[in-house]
């Protein structure tokens, strides 16, 4: 039994903090009140501290980078107070895998790192139950993962019978515990997906009370159209909707603000977007190619780059950026690790070529496997957007092990702490509003019935804050972060849709 005495509770509901004693027993919050005479195995003096529910990061990439396997502690999340992460975003998930292929996560990582011994969503969860994680993990199923298993690398509409099979798979996965369904409509393999196909699939998600999360078809010139399409789908199906990593790209701020207006005034379904308070995207390098040059998949993209004539055409269509705007985060290729951390300006200087030519060379040197940190987000505007009622905070990142040859942007380990700091500096949202955004709102959205609040009977996923800094974290009643340090305790669980 753990007794936390005289602590200010920010309970996650958005109401003002109040002072009480809290008793944890097993994995639950067993009592909240005034217990001056109670003794316990562990007593924590709460003076000067806040107690909040554990934070929920609604959009993470730890599954895409396979770091759930290579770094099961996921401690970069725990250290910032995140006790639950949600994966399976942007159309790509680790399950179901009809033929065991992880092809759809290859844009983030080397997929030969692990052995796949599951096919259905249910089999995946069973296996995952045995892996001890530091955080709780739940996942959506990815549209692209299933679609590519069904029709391979073809770029075409589904036949009637393929769509029927697809619907069966979605239904079965939801029954087996998937939290919902995601699309990555901005990526080459999904960009041409017709609205009708999405609607058929999303209707099933709605029937099961799952969440539909979408990486928009177009975040540039087509932003407003993409948001409108998403809102139409939400309205026509009533599905709980989440617009993934919704961010104002430089040069498209006006479109972003207009889209925000549409979102703010939308009625007809539960609607949120998630975003992060940083000025960068982390993207697979091939996404810089013009759309026509991405069609057909990786082999065709590489062939395009190898053709001098096509390369010249691509060069003319690359976006404008400065020498420090692109940094190599990860190359996935051991013989190219020396490029990690290099800025595009350095590569251009070393090779005596223009910035755009350097980007093309980087694509070729890494056979399009590189991930880059791209400074293309308007920070001021994204911070303002995060204040909206519809905004949830997400890292859209992963927790890597220390020995991975990759650059960790602050987004990977500081998203939630940073937002707490920003809110404090600007005086809004209030601490209780920020905590509500981090906890009960996402818990409700994803149907986590006994998480997201400091309330009797709830699971003891908790954070102790001192001056808004994470001092201790509990997962399922166990203190996994103490004095800001990871305790080597793996108390995370697999979360199913309930
Ligand atoms: Zn995405």
From TrEMBL:
Cofactor dependence: Zn(2+)
Pfam families found in the cross-reference section: Amidohydro_1
Domain of life: Bacteria
PANTHER family, per database record: COLLAPSIN RESPONSE MEDIATOR PROTEIN, HYDRANTOINASE/DIHYDROPYRIMIDINASE FAMILY MEMBER
Residues of the signal peptide: none
GO MF term list: hydrolase activity, acting on carbon-nitrogen (but not peptide) bonds, in cyclic amides; hydrolase activity, acting on carbon-nitrogen (but not peptide) bonds, in linear amides
Name the UniProt record assigns to this protein: Amidohydrolase-related domain-containing protein
Cited Gene3D superfamilies: D-aminoacylase. Domain 3 (3.30.1490.130), Metal-dependent hydrolases (3.20.20.140), Urease, subunit C, domain 1 (2.30.40.10)
Entry GO terms, CC: cytosol
InterPro entries listed in its UniProt record: Amidohydro-rel, D-aminoacylase_insert_dom_sf, Metal-dep_hydrolase_composite, Metal_Hydrolase, Metallo-dep_Hydrolases_sf
Organism, scientific name: Candidatus Harrisonbacteria bacterium RIFCSPLOWO2_02_FULL_41_13b
Annotated Amidohydrolase-related domain residues: 421-480
